[in-house]
Amino acid sequence: MKNITVIGGGAWGTALATAACRAKCSTKLYARETEIVDAINAGEGNPVFLPNVSLSKDIRATANLNDAVKDADALLIVVPAQFLRATAKALSDITPIHVPIVLAAKGIEQGTLALMSEIVEETMPQHSMAAISGPSFAAEVARGLPVALTLACTDDVLGQKLINALASPMFRIYQSDDLIGAEIGGAVKNVLAIACGVVEGRGLGNNARAALITRGLAELMRLGHVKGASTGTMMGLAGLGDLVLTCNAMQSRNFSFGHALGQGKSVAEILASRVAVTEGVTSSTSVKELADKHNVEMPISASVHAIIHENKDIDVAIAELMERPLRPETT
Predict the structure, then answer these.
(1) What's the burial of 331, exposed, middle or buried (CB within 10 Å: 0-12/13-18/19+)?
(2) 45: domain range?
(3) How does pLDDT run across 119-173, given as a tens digit for each residue?
(4) What is the distance between the alpha carbons of residues 278 and 294, in angstroms, rounded to a whole number?
(5) Active site includes 189?
(6) Of 81, 169, 177, 222, which alpha carbon lies 20 to 30 A from 90's?
(7) Residues of the chain with pLDDT under 70
(8) Which of 28, 189, 227, 293 is catalytic?
(9) Quick check: is 216 in a domain?
């Protein structure tokens, strides 16, 4: 398994392509934007989504989907969550059924409330599947700094093949068979990171942020359990690890979005200033609706949804969270 194709020329897709090159894979990167394709092939990096980061000169970029898929041993799909279904449908007609799909998108589809793996099960049912997730800022991965991730796959043999193909000295991968747990962690942490950003932007202190991370983890685990995820996965790199990273750094698009909200900027104003997708904005609706569907209590996530999509006053939302009935911590 040495021919790797990455579908998606954003920051994370570009970083994963560079990681694959470091693992001595022959790597293609598909991007819709011709300026990204041209820049990468000219050795100028990705000026749109990873400016000022040097990339491997061995990445071959293409804007032709058929060319991208040709001869691939595995496809890493790294598109925004709300675009996955359309991408998977386009790939289903041109991808040989023996080629496994590795999901690196994090989110829950709006409307259907489908996880990323559930979308692929519907659109590419004959393909084996895995998901890669964990605490990872794209720029750091692209620069070759140390990172540890989870690769979840129900087929142990395939999972090990993928890990052997992609792992390298600074790109460590742990194996899991819990696809759902890895996906729930990746989706919910983006919403919770917005909440932590609001706390920071509002100047509410480190105590409040620590409380939000801890109680947010409880929400993540409650939703994961009803979907069939294991506790171990949600307490690991794809759950707690990703949550801690995303909730503590301005490098996180979701944290920085929340920070701007906390400082009084409007949702429209913040989004208009950004090139990359802030997944937690759309995921906040999907997470809330999925929680409601399964009768799972997720007050922090619901508050983030209300602030972003219902124009709820931030101070009112915070007061309501703090004034909730007192209860045992384990419930």
Answers:
(1) exposed
(2) 3-177
(3) 999 999 999 999 999 999 999 999 999 999 999 999 999 999 999 999 999 999 9
(4) 25
(5) yes
(6) 177
(7) 331
(8) 189
(9) yes
